Structures are given as C-alpha cells and as structure tokens.
Amino acid sequence: MPLEVHTDARAVAMRGAELFLESVHAAVHARGRCGIVLSGGSTPRATYEEIARRAGNDRALWAGAQVFWGDERCVPADDERSNERMARESLLARVPIPARHVFPMRCMGDAEAAARRYEDLIREHLGAMPRFDLVFLGLGDDGHTASLFPGNALLEETERWVGVTRRSSESFTRITLTLAVINLAARVIFLVSGAGKAEALQRALAGDLRAPASLVQPANGDLYWLVDAAAARRLGESG
Ligand code: 6PG
C-alpha cells in the first residue's frame, strides 16, 4: 500500500494529477475506456485543476473517460456544497470530455430511488462486477471517506453499491458508493492534506476500525495514500 508523504498540499495535487493521468492513459490505451470515480470535498480541487492544466487538450484521453462520483450531497447541482459543482468547475468544464460520459449522482427528492438509479447506471456501463479503473477518495477528520461515516450501517453493506446516509450536523441527505464497489476498483487514490487530518490518517493507516477509510482495501487493486507532511505528522507515533 504505497504511502507517499509530500511536502505540502500542492505537491500532493501534482502527484495526484500525475497518477491520475498515468492510470487513465493506461486504461484507455488497453481497453479504449476508463471508469473514473471523483471524490468530493475541497482537497481534490487542486488535483482536478492540475489535471485540467496538463490534459486540457487531450481529446483521445477524454473520449475514453467515463466519470462518476463517489458520493454526493442531495442539493441542487449549482449549490456551492455540491460535489458535482466542484468537479465541473475545477475539471470537467476545462477538458473536452463528452457530456454523455459524465454521470452526476443527482439525488434531490427520493434519495433511495436516486441510489437505485445510480446502481443501474454503474451496472449499465461497468457490468455486474463493476471494476472502476480509478477511484479518488478524501479523508474526513473523523476518518470517514466518501459519505461512509463512523458507526454507519453502510459500512457493513456487502450487496448494494450505492447507499443513502445523513450526518446529524447537516440539513441534507447524501448518497454514497459503498465499500462493496469501492473495493472492486483497480486503483484507489486517497488525497489527504492538512494537520487536521493527522489523527484520522494515523487511525486509517493503523487499520483502526473507528476510521471507515481503514476499510478501503481493494481486493485486486492498488491503494495509494498521497498525503502532505502536515497530515503525516503523527505517523510513527503509537496509538
Ligand atoms: C464529501 C466528501 C468527503 C470528503 C472528506 C474530506 O462529500 O464530503 O466526499 O468524503 O472527501 O470529507 O473533505 P475535505 O477534502 O473538504 O477535507
């Protein structure tokens, strides 16, 4: 499980963009297409912007890319809290990806129905055993990833690929990929930066089940942790 500690958030973004493009080029070259899952939150923005800077004119690459999300807040697509909005602003609006290759999670209204629709979409494009080529994930300061929060029943979900969840501190519902599909991926890349993530990162890497991110263990795939020095400052400490 490659853990890479980089000097700062910008260095994490540079490396994340490099690994993304390496993965997508390899998949498109090998099979003509690449199934990508984008993370929400704020950390990935710099990586997405760097990917757009590097591959903004690469029509062949984006012609083979299919973009999905790992989770979404059930808010309007133009809401500043929307993961779709963040990815469109920082990446998708800056690259020549065909609109028909972008699959936002859109879950306003009946979130359960939205989760079922998203599963159907995944099945339609990736089949009955969906193996995404590349999954970007973030890490919350409580150890969550995607919208898989500590103590949530979705952590035990082995059949469903998309679940509905909610945080008591938030006014909106969320839908999220489950570990059942995340752990089928060929490559998972965590992007983590900032001192606020140090304890969560220590727990996740130590396999502490209080950190749901520790449960991301691709059965037949690569797992990369791209972290900055601030987030890594507690690694090597006990407990
Ligand atoms: C979300 C994200 C979530 C995020 C972490 C880290 O919708 O909130 O998918 O899992 O990756 O909360 O968020 P930051 O990158 O903003 O710290």
What Rg is obtained from the alpha carbons, in whole angstroms? 17 Å
Range of strand content: 15-25%
Number of domains: 1
Q: Could you give the order of the helices and strands?
A: EHEHHEEHHEEEHEHE
> Which regions contain 5 or more consecutive residues with pLDDT less than 50?
none
Choose one word for the global shape.
globular
The averaged pLDDT comes out at 97
Structural class: alpha/beta
Q: Briefly, what CATH class?
A: Alpha Beta
Oligomer state equals single chain
User: Order of strands across the widest beta sheet?
Assistant: 1-9-8-5-2-3
Bound molecules: 6-phosphogluconic acid
Helix content: 25-40%
- Total beta-strand segments: 9
Could you describe the largest sheet, including whether it forms a barrel?
A: 6 strands, parallel
CATH hierarchy: architecture: 3-Layer(aba) Sandwich
The total count of helices amounts to 7
Could you say what the CATH topology is called? Rossmann fold
N- and C-termini, Cα separation: 20 Å
